[in-house]
Amino acid sequence: MKYLFINTAEKNSEIAFFSESKTFFYKSFPGTKKQSEMLLPNLKTSFDKIGAKFSEIDGLIVISGPGPFTGLRVGVTVANAICYTLNVPIYTLKLEKYKKLTDKANLLKSEVQKCFFKILPVKQIRKLSEQKIAIPFYDKEPNITLKP
What is the domain-level CATH number for residue 65? Predict the structure, then answer.
């Protein structure tokens, strides 16, 4: 099984494509207020670089929050759209749990690119509840300003 991972809940966004024993790609990029412009191009570039197709995704894990309104909205919407289109399961993971898994994996930054699969082992993914759609969990109420 191959999984796509999306995290837009932090200052730097992260994407990864991995299986039980291999990381095909991992990328971290500045995401502050630019997720809507950067997420899809980074996904496409990363898949193109390894010669893979979106149709190879068997499941998707998305960080559902807490985090910034715009970042989560973009990440969760892209994740839901990919899963709906490919008819694959989506799993949500809270940011705190992801950070605990990252700490537990005890990987150096340089190792994350090669060993992302150690952060989210397949047995850990199976413990997550499969969703029909992911729903974001914001760190505060949305503050949407309308111009008069």
Answer: 3.30.420.40
